[in-house]
What we know:
Layout: H1 2-7, H2 12-29, H3 33-45, H4 50-54, H5 56-61, H6 65-86, H7 92-124, E1 133-137, E2 143-148, E3 154-162, H8 175-182, E4 186-187, E5 190-191, H9 192-201, E6 205-210, E7 214-223, H10 227-237, H11 240-245, H12 254-263, H13 267-280, H14 301-311, E8 317-323, H15 327-338
Amino acid sequence: MIADVAQNPARAEDLERVKTQLIAEAIYAQDNQATLARWYGGALTTGLSIDDIRSWPDRIRAVTAEQVRDAAAEMARQETFGDRLSDQGCRAETRGEALVTYSLTRRAALIGGACLAITACSASTPSQAAAKIQRLVSPGGIEAWFVQDATVPLIAMEYAFGGGATQDPAGKPGVGNMVADLLDEGSGDLDSKTFHERLDRRAIELSFSSTRAIISAARLRMLKDNKDEAFDLLQHGADLAAFRRRRCRAHPRPGRSRACAASTTNPTSLASRKFLEVAFGDHPYGRQANGTLDSVPKIDVADLKDYVRRVLARDTLRIAVVGDVDPTRSANCSTRRLAACRPRPA
């Protein structure tokens, strides 16, 4: 792989996609104190400065295809040189001792660097108590909360519908969970592959999930510069009218079936299931939100579309947005894309 990159310059679209993802990773890291501490600790451990980390997005933007090719060629030369050294008398015991020493030293330095970084993060981060929450209601009655914060050039959004697994049909737990799985399987003129390629190209994080009380877009996170495309893709995922028209297949993702099977033997899962039975009895909260090995195969397309019609309704929708965004403009943008949600049927 490295040799191939060294011989053939990266295509412009591939380079742009990778640069976008690396820039997003660096910016998203600033949204989490623990992640930021690890990044700062790693920088201090390897002789870099915190300013080096902060300037990384700008340095990534300036990288050219020729620089990538030259770096790959240098890595290929180093790999060849390293392989030759390992074959020339370096004892396994010596290599193992050096590896252990290096790992322990780096771990200690990383912990120390992270501790220093946490102090730096705390000193440079505005007090959360100063956050001002703004509440807006769209003409269609969709309620949204906003916190404007330009500290980091990203936007995080979550929206949720009340209902979740408590609205699964009796005897068929897991319907809401399967709906959440299918919401990012493409919509309109976008199939699943194209939908996810567009997310990947702009480093947009979008995922759906279902709990006992809500079904939500658990995370929509984007760079500020990519907000228009992120909201467009959100509209595709939230196009419930298209979902109802779509010829979707009622099939669980492979991981879902494995999780259901594992829950029948996992001690923690068994204990949780027993607790729910004792605590809630026949109440919907006592159901298995992920479904069971018996219920999941029985779920059909009609169950999925009926759930969307009953549960994913405008009057139970709530939106929260935080980041470098104008609340009024963002409210108009996000609620417009979710305005196709119908009121809950009587």
